[in-house]
From TrEMBL:
Catalytic activity line of the entry: 2'-deoxyribonucleotide-(2'-deoxyribose 5'-phosphate)-2'-deoxyribonucleotide-DNA = a 3'-end 2'-deoxyribonucleotide-(2,3-dehydro-2,3-deoxyribose 5'-phosphate)-DNA + a 5'-end 5'-phospho-2'-deoxyribonucleoside-DNA + H(+)
UniProtKB keywords: DNA damage, DNA repair, DNA-binding, Glycosidase, Hydrolase, Lyase, Metal-binding, Multifunctional enzyme, Zinc, Zinc-finger
Domain of life: Bacteria
Family, similarity comment: Belongs to the FPG family.
The protein, known as: DNA-(apurinic or apyrimidinic site) lyase
Amino acid sequence: MPEGHTLHRLARQIDDLFVGRMWKVTSPQGRFAAGAALLDGRAPEQAEAWGKHLFVRVGHHVWQVHLGLYGAFSFRGDESFDGAATLGAPRAAAQAWDIRRDDDGWIVPTAPEGAVRARIRSPHGWADLRGPSRCAVLTAEEHREVIARLGPDPLRQPEGATLDDMIESFAGRLARRRTPLAAALMDQSVIAGVGNIYRAESLFLERLDPDMPARQLPAEQAAALWRRLTDQLRDGVREGVIRTVRTPDPPPSEATHDYRVSSHPEAERRHWVYRHHGTPCLRCGEAIAARELQGRTLYWCPGCQR
Ligand SMILES: [Zn+2]
């Protein structure tokens, strides 16, 4: 599932390509036809992410998209329409196509392929949304209700809030959860934007037992975990991939194995524990473990996360 860094990249890209200019919005698949009609022919004013939600403000409405497990946006257009070709779940590369323009000078899109929930167009290109778990047009009041249910997002600091305020909010939410820490991190009302990979990797680097009840996490460790996740998510926004294996963290002298070990011998290893179950921990040598927790696979090292 796309984690918070992807949604923030998506918001930036939609901001760059569409905000401030009139767009056309349709639902080739039909399921979003009524919503698209509310957005069509207007100028989107702002695109932003909060955790795993994308919100695009259009007049009195807010377009909400949650990609879920399978959702993705694909982008195509002329040379001025640059950015990632897809954001979200991995998709096949787009076919080559010829740039044609209509009488108004707008790029003519190719016929929709597959179930395109929403297609948004600018004069220079278009974006297709497929497979989202949520795609809806909200009133301002409904938007406020969605936001109110979300925990703090390390990638967004509300105006007037300090880092300490953010940490306090996170720690306070953890302190009210009896669930295992690993479950609390996936709870979007505790912290918004963390998914399975960031959960596994942050807990590993902070040497935290995933089964520890969330409310037992000492305040200073909650603060360290927040900072860790913030750094990781920011790296993800900058680089477009989740890569948590970075020197000197832990110091190379502590590592028992070469970092450059993964399914591709040439590839640099990206993750410490995520999907490395059954292989030796790079920090302590113990076998990395995996098990189901609330329907998602949890990866951790029983040797050094205690
Ligand atoms: Zn270990």
